[in-house]
Design brief:
Helix 16 (388-394) packs across helix 20. Strands 1, 2, 3, 4, 5, 6, 7, 8, 12 and 13 form a ten-stranded mixed beta sheet that branches. A six-stranded parallel beta sheet has the order 16-15-14-17-18-19, with helices on both faces. The protein is of the alpha/beta class. The protein contains 21 helices and 19 strands. Strand 15 (329-336), helix 14 and strand 16 (355-359) form a beta-alpha-beta unit. The model has no long low-confidence stretch (mean pLDDT 97). It binds adenosine-5'-diphosphate and alpha-D-glucopyranose.
């Protein structure tokens, strides 16, 4: 099966969050299952051409792509995804993608991804490589299903190509003023109140994707249910409800080539299920790096996160002083919303022996925190999948999470498992979105840390669990087949 996998970021080239982790690994897992996969991403100025051996595609040459009244020149470069045979296509248009950051608040943010989506389709046409399935991810690629079903209908060239749209976060929707109808070249008869593209008078790329994709999925089973409710659907619950039979949940996997304490090149001391000694050394190294005096007896709690309201830091603010009184130390890595950045800057200044924070994006440090911390906190308000709690399990770093979305599907509360007569818990969870519930769960984790045999069991349960991409890739393959059937039967 031929798959065009389209995303706005992918490791190792560009990353702001978990989407990049998925887009940089799932294509290779699909290729291993016998699919022929091509990955398409924008060529941002931050991508190191020589490091990744990008080659200019002379056979494609210059393409002229219309965005509204402007016509932009686009070039394509290719490379091979490291460790695989997946060909990566970089859409090169400096006018839109040389901006210093991957996503912007610039007034032409819609145009950037209109151009990207159109360029992907032009490249497929020019190279005469017509995929069976185009796998789109998040709103940045949301117009592709619309184009396939409408703008190319007459030509018929994509009539057998089906589309799968993966929602990594329903709250980010690509909502733009109605002028985007013109910029995107959306047929006028598709834009009307209550129609497939219109959202409160604006254009929604997410709604267009949900309307026109053959199949839709999100990144955990629980989140697939949650987004059908007003609390978590961010306004899309109605249209998602209309497509309920085409909506699936597939939990993300983990790339254990990159995230495994036994052979992680980004941590100083490796360790494993059979020999934990390196973990304590990583903790000491990390504490030294962060200027915290640490001991083996005081739990070190790590946070690595985008600082967005989704991630639950309002709860942290609510009970911050109580958290700082616990017998625990904190290391925080993250960037984003200034409100949360400043919360952690303040706490680091006020409680220098308790909490240390690095405000910024730093991949090496994210691995080091996973390896050195004892406990990992993710109090998310909502979490489509979440990867850091799964990394934490592998690193024997016990997660404390709110029971929502993918967090609910991956972390089993120790107390709950014990109450049902099992000892298969791998972390601590809380349900109510409140500072006091979060504090209660953290308290349980901190006090359990003192009970070494129980703690070791918790760590082992997490480290033994396997969240592989092979399982997820098989599930995706199945969805591709369903999307093909739907397309062929014209449903
Ligand atoms: P989301 O995609 O919502 O941000 P995920 O848990 O799915 O959440 O994925 C986040 C990814 O981004 C993880 O790989 C995590 O390690 C990484 N990450 C988040 N913030 C930072 C940061 N400040 N520095 C380095 N890596 C980060
Ligand atoms: C989004 C979600 C996160 C998920 C990631 C990858 O950024 O917020 O929960 O893990 O996408 O699917």
């Amino acid at each position: 099966m031929k798959i065009a996998f389209v995303a706005s970021e992918a490791v190792p080239y560009s990353k702001t969050g978990g989407l990049a982790d998925v887009a940089g690994v799932l294509p290779a897992a699909l290729q291993k299952l016998g699919c022929k996969v091509k990955l398409f991403i924008p060529k941002y100025s931050s991508i190191d051409e020589s490091k990744y051996g990008l080659r200019y595609c002379w056979n494609i040459g210059e393409m002229q792509i219309r965005v509204g009244s402007a016509v932009r020149s686009v070039h394509i470069h290719t490379s091979t995804l490291p460790g695989s045979e997946v060909e990566v296509y970089f859409v090169d248009c400096p006018y839109y993608f040389f901006r210093g950051q991957i996503y912007t608040d610039d007034p032409d943010e819609d145009e950037r991804f209109i151009l990207f989506s159109k360029a992907v389709l032009q490249t497929l046409l020019k190279t005469k490589w017509i995929p069976d399935v185009i796998h789109c991810n998040d709103w940045q690629t949301g117009l592709i299903p619309l184009y396939i079903k409408n703008n190319f209908k007459e030509e018929g060239v994509f009539n057998k190509t089906s589309t799968l749209f993966t929602i990594h976060n329903v709250a980010y929707q690509g909502r733009f003023s109605r002028s985007a109808v013109y910029s995107a070249g959306i047929q006028k008869n598709l834009f009307y109140a209550g129609g497939p593209v219109e959202y409160f008078g604006d254009v929604s790329f997410m709604k267009a994707a949900i309307s026109f994709s053959d199949i839709i999925n999100t990144v955990s089973k629980t989140y697939a249910e949650e987004i059908l409710t007003p609390e978590f659907g961010s306004g899309m619950e109605g249209i998602l409800g209309d497509r309920k039979t085409d909506l699936f949940g597939i939990l993300n996997g983990v790339d254990y080539e990159q995230w495994d304490p036994e052979n992680d090149s980004l941590i100083p001391y490796s360790y494993s299920l059979n020999d934990f000694s390196g973990k304590l050394k990583n903790k000491e190294f990390l504490c030294e790096h962060f200027n915290l005096a640490c001991t083996g007896d005081t739990p070190l709690i790590g946070i690595v996160s985008r600082m967005a309201s989704q991630k639950g830091f309002d709860l942290f603010a609510e009970v911050a002083d109580q958290l700082m009184e616990l017998n625990a130390q904190w290391i925080v890595l993250g960037s984003g919303d200034e409100k949360y950045e400043n919360l952690f800057r303040y706490l680091a200044a006020f409680y220098p022996d308790r909490l240390s924070a690095y405000i910024g994006f730093n991949t090496e440090l994210s691995h080091l925190i996973e390896a050195g911390a004892d406990i990992f906190l993710m109090p998310s308000h909502y979490e489509p999948c979440g990867l850091n709690q799964i990394y934490s399990l592998k690193y024997g770093t016990v997660p404390v999470v709110r029971k929502t979305g993918g967090l609910a599907d991956t972390v089993r509360d120790w107390g709950e498992s014990a109450a049902s007569g099992n000892d298969d818990g791998n972390g601590f969870t809380f349900t109510e979105y409140s500072g006091s519930s979060m504090l209660e769960a953290i308290n349980r984790a901190v006090s359990t840390f003192g009970n070494k045999p129980v703690w070791r069991k918790l760590q082992q349960n997490g480290m033994k669990a396997v969240f592989s991409w092979d399982r997820a890739a098989n599930e995706y393959l199945n969805l591709y087949k369903i999307s093909q059937q739907k397309r062929q039967s014209g449903l």
